Amino acid sequence: MSHTEHDLRELLAARSEGGRGGPARLDEIVARGRRIRRRRGWAAAGTVAAAFAVLAVLVPSLLSGVSGANGRRSDIAARVGETERAPREEGVRLAGARSENTAKVERLSVTPRSDETSYRVNCAEGWAFVRLGDQVDGGVCGAHDTQWTLSGSLDEAREGVPATVEAFTVPASQVPQDVRERSDGTLSSGDFDRMLADSAPREALWEIAIHDGGVSSMSCSPDICLDSGTLPAAHGERNLAGLPNGHQIEGRRLTEINRRVAFAPALHGGARVYVRCEGEELHAFIWAGKGGDDGVLAKSLPCGAKPALWEFSADGPTDVTVAVIRRDRVPDGVDFVSDLRVASDRANLLLRKLTPEAGKWEVSIQQWDEPESKVRVSEGPEGRSYTFGD
């Protein structure tokens, strides 16, 4: 085991004892790193300094492993965050659901509280279809180059009468022309059933919320609306993903894979990197640092509609480098975890053997809008979860 890995593990073990579970602080890491360095007497002082500069960003990841919709027209797909910066007109959320698959119906049971009940569907790419009784709405809820939200009013909802709202999404390529032409409010229940039957399931992250009164596009979860930011819901509800609210500091949509892309955002406190490869079977590498020989691999994860995620804590300008390759290019049995420096070298070697080619993916580096002291991160069988203090 290398000195770098051994001392990193000591840092991780110490940080995990009795902590609150959130990202480690930079000053805490650096101070402990200096003590370890003095105790072990590393000879390569330059190498150590560089390693701990990277660890200040890297350690936390390893600790883890439309404006209001009042009209009937549902095809009014507002660009997320374009007009409304605060969900002032948003009503109380009655129900919500998230899904990781297209062509799979989500059913939400609600009891309307007034004569105005609205819905909002957020997705990264594709079309959404919503049904309540004889009312069927359909339209764009996301695209690779622009993030949108599909919203509308549920005209068949009646105050005090229990109702079931059904919704699903499909890739835009699976929507026939006749359905596109009738998405102005003339879709039928038969169209809903036909689209569901004719659509092939695939991985896709999307969500639907039902509100009493209007809805706000700014209540989209940050792992779906990567570039728009997420404000607290008007009545105190968390975003449907249960994630800390945040906003994008730096991001990019790309159409070429097999090359590194560097970022240097100024971050303060909790932060996260999302790498999403909508509709692509890709694999993401995320480096703490500038990549190449100077970076340390922070994450090596499959990248799809559900984005690859790295969370960390930083204070100031932070170098982050990202690259994606096709999943079938990742050798079977290669260890990208136990020795960070070796893992970085292996990832760099893979990239040197590849030439750039077409492929759609995007990167979003987000700053938490909530103090780290009020967020506790836990790991469980189903992944990471968050609890929030007052």
From TrEMBL:
Residues 371-382 have a biased composition (Basic and acidic residues). Keywords: Membrane, Transmembrane, Transmembrane helix. This is Uncharacterized protein. It comes from Streptosporangium carneum. The chain crosses the membrane at residues 42-63. Residues 371-390 are annotated as: Disordered.
